[in-house]
Amino acid sequence: MTQAPKDAGAKRGTQAPKDAGAKRRTPPYKLDHLGIAVASIDAALDVYRALGLDEVKREAVPSQKVTAAFLPVGESRIELLEPSAEDSPVAKFLARRGEGIHHVCFAVEDLDGALADLADKGFRLIHSQPVAGADGKRVAFLHPDAGHGVLIELSERR
Q1: Is residue 76 a part of any domain in this protein?
Q2: Fewest CB atoms within 10 Å of the CB: 49, 50, 78, 80?
Q3: pLDDT at position 134 over 80
Protein backbone atom coordinates (compact mmCIF):
# COMPACT_ATOMS: atom_id res chain seq x y z
CA MET A 1 0.00 0.00 0.00
CA THR A 2 1.39 3.39 -0.98
CA GLN A 3 1.22 6.31 1.39
CA ALA A 4 -0.17 9.65 0.38
CA PRO A 5 2.30 12.51 0.55
CA LYS A 6 2.29 14.36 3.89
CA ASP A 7 0.85 17.48 2.28
CA ALA A 8 -1.91 15.68 0.36
CA GLY A 9 -4.58 17.25 2.55
CA ALA A 10 -3.03 20.72 2.55
CA LYS A 11 -5.00 23.53 1.01
CA ARG A 12 -3.72 24.91 -2.26
CA GLY A 13 -1.21 27.68 -1.73
CA THR A 14 -0.74 27.08 2.01
CA GLN A 15 2.46 25.07 1.77
CA ALA A 16 5.75 26.97 1.47
CA PRO A 17 7.65 26.37 -1.77
CA LYS A 18 10.70 24.09 -1.58
CA ASP A 19 13.07 27.04 -1.82
CA ALA A 20 11.03 29.46 0.27
CA GLY A 21 14.16 31.46 1.11
CA ALA A 22 14.95 32.02 -2.58
CA LYS A 23 13.77 35.16 -4.30
CA ARG A 24 10.87 34.58 -6.74
CA ARG A 25 11.84 35.17 -10.34
CA THR A 26 9.52 37.11 -12.58
CA PRO A 27 9.00 35.19 -15.82
CA PRO A 28 10.74 36.91 -18.74
CA TYR A 29 7.66 36.42 -20.89
CA LYS A 30 4.48 38.48 -21.01
CA LEU A 31 1.33 37.70 -22.99
CA ASP A 32 1.45 40.09 -25.95
CA HIS A 33 -1.48 38.92 -28.08
CA LEU A 34 -3.66 36.12 -29.38
CA GLY A 35 -3.49 35.75 -33.15
CA ILE A 36 -6.80 34.83 -34.76
CA ALA A 37 -6.92 33.70 -38.39
CA VAL A 38 -9.88 35.13 -40.30
CA ALA A 39 -10.96 35.13 -43.93
CA SER A 40 -11.92 38.81 -43.65
CA ILE A 41 -10.90 41.28 -40.95
CA ASP A 42 -13.85 43.52 -41.80
CA ALA A 43 -16.35 40.67 -41.36
CA ALA A 44 -14.69 39.50 -38.12
CA LEU A 45 -14.72 42.95 -36.52
CA ASP A 46 -18.50 42.90 -35.91
CA VAL A 47 -18.34 40.60 -32.91
CA TYR A 48 -15.31 42.34 -31.38
CA ARG A 49 -17.00 45.73 -31.72
CA ALA A 50 -20.09 44.27 -30.06
CA LEU A 51 -17.78 43.24 -27.19
CA GLY A 52 -16.61 46.84 -26.89
CA LEU A 53 -13.21 46.37 -28.54
CA ASP A 54 -11.91 48.85 -31.08
CA GLU A 55 -9.43 48.37 -33.87
CA VAL A 56 -6.53 50.74 -33.22
CA LYS A 57 -4.24 49.79 -36.08
CA ARG A 58 -4.16 47.78 -39.29
CA GLU A 59 -1.05 46.98 -41.29
CA ALA A 60 0.35 44.73 -43.98
CA VAL A 61 3.04 42.31 -42.80
CA PRO A 62 4.87 41.27 -45.97
CA SER A 63 7.17 38.76 -44.21
CA GLN A 64 4.12 36.74 -43.12
CA LYS A 65 1.92 37.57 -46.13
CA VAL A 66 -0.92 38.84 -43.95
CA THR A 67 -2.79 41.96 -43.00
CA ALA A 68 -3.03 42.35 -39.22
CA ALA A 69 -5.58 44.36 -37.24
CA PHE A 70 -4.93 45.10 -33.56
CA LEU A 71 -7.59 45.33 -30.86
CA PRO A 72 -6.36 46.11 -27.31
CA VAL A 73 -7.74 44.06 -24.42
CA GLY A 74 -6.29 45.19 -21.10
CA GLU A 75 -2.51 44.87 -21.31
CA SER A 76 -2.74 42.43 -24.24
CA ARG A 77 -4.27 42.50 -27.70
CA ILE A 78 -6.27 40.49 -30.17
CA GLU A 79 -4.53 40.33 -33.55
CA LEU A 80 -6.85 39.49 -36.44
CA LEU A 81 -4.90 37.96 -39.33
CA GLU A 82 -6.18 38.00 -42.90
CA PRO A 83 -4.01 36.32 -45.54
CA SER A 84 -2.74 38.56 -48.33
CA ALA A 85 -1.52 35.66 -50.48
CA GLU A 86 -2.76 32.13 -51.12
CA ASP A 87 0.59 30.65 -50.05
CA SER A 88 0.77 32.47 -46.70
CA PRO A 89 0.93 30.42 -43.49
CA VAL A 90 -2.43 31.91 -42.42
CA ALA A 91 -4.07 30.97 -45.76
CA LYS A 92 -2.81 27.40 -45.31
CA PHE A 93 -4.12 27.40 -41.74
CA LEU A 94 -7.56 28.59 -42.89
CA ALA A 95 -7.68 25.91 -45.61
CA ARG A 96 -6.83 23.14 -43.11
CA ARG A 97 -8.62 24.28 -39.96
CA GLY A 98 -10.88 27.21 -40.76
CA GLU A 99 -11.07 30.43 -38.82
CA GLY A 100 -9.96 30.50 -35.21
CA ILE A 101 -7.06 30.92 -32.85
CA HIS A 102 -3.84 30.72 -34.86
CA HIS A 103 -1.19 31.43 -32.22
CA VAL A 104 -0.35 32.86 -28.82
CA CYS A 105 2.39 35.47 -28.65
CA PHE A 106 4.67 36.23 -25.74
CA ALA A 107 6.71 39.44 -25.55
CA VAL A 108 10.36 39.00 -24.59
CA GLU A 109 13.10 41.53 -23.96
CA ASP A 110 15.86 39.42 -25.57
CA LEU A 111 14.51 37.42 -28.50
CA ASP A 112 17.91 36.09 -29.60
CA GLY A 113 18.62 34.88 -26.07
CA ALA A 114 15.16 33.32 -25.71
CA LEU A 115 15.56 31.42 -29.00
CA ALA A 116 19.02 30.17 -28.01
CA ASP A 117 17.71 29.07 -24.61
CA LEU A 118 14.73 27.23 -26.10
CA ALA A 119 16.89 25.55 -28.76
CA ASP A 120 19.38 24.48 -26.06
CA LYS A 121 16.48 22.93 -24.16
CA GLY A 122 15.57 20.91 -27.26
CA PHE A 123 12.42 22.74 -28.37
CA ARG A 124 11.71 22.73 -32.09
CA LEU A 125 11.79 26.19 -33.68
CA ILE A 126 10.30 27.36 -36.96
CA HIS A 127 12.61 30.40 -36.91
CA SER A 128 16.08 30.07 -35.42
CA GLN A 129 16.63 33.74 -36.26
CA PRO A 130 14.10 36.58 -35.79
CA VAL A 131 12.15 37.92 -38.77
CA ALA A 132 10.29 41.20 -39.29
CA GLY A 133 6.84 41.13 -37.73
CA ALA A 134 3.88 43.43 -37.27
CA ASP A 135 4.03 46.63 -35.24
CA GLY A 136 7.75 47.08 -35.93
CA LYS A 137 8.69 44.03 -33.85
CA ARG A 138 11.15 41.21 -34.43
CA VAL A 139 9.39 37.84 -34.14
CA ALA A 140 10.06 34.12 -34.25
CA PHE A 141 7.80 31.10 -34.02
CA LEU A 142 8.20 27.83 -32.17
CA HIS A 143 6.87 24.75 -33.92
CA PRO A 144 3.42 23.64 -32.68
CA ASP A 145 5.07 20.40 -31.49
CA ALA A 146 6.94 22.46 -28.89
CA GLY A 147 3.66 23.94 -27.63
CA HIS A 148 1.74 20.64 -27.61
CA GLY A 149 -0.30 21.67 -30.63
CA VAL A 150 -0.20 25.43 -30.01
CA LEU A 151 1.81 27.68 -32.31
CA ILE A 152 3.85 30.02 -30.09
CA GLU A 153 5.23 33.32 -31.29
CA LEU A 154 7.87 35.32 -29.44
CA SER A 155 8.15 39.04 -30.13
CA GLU A 156 10.61 41.74 -29.25
CA ARG A 157 10.06 45.46 -29.57
CA ARG A 158 12.89 47.11 -31.51
Answers
A1: yes
A2: 50
A3: yes
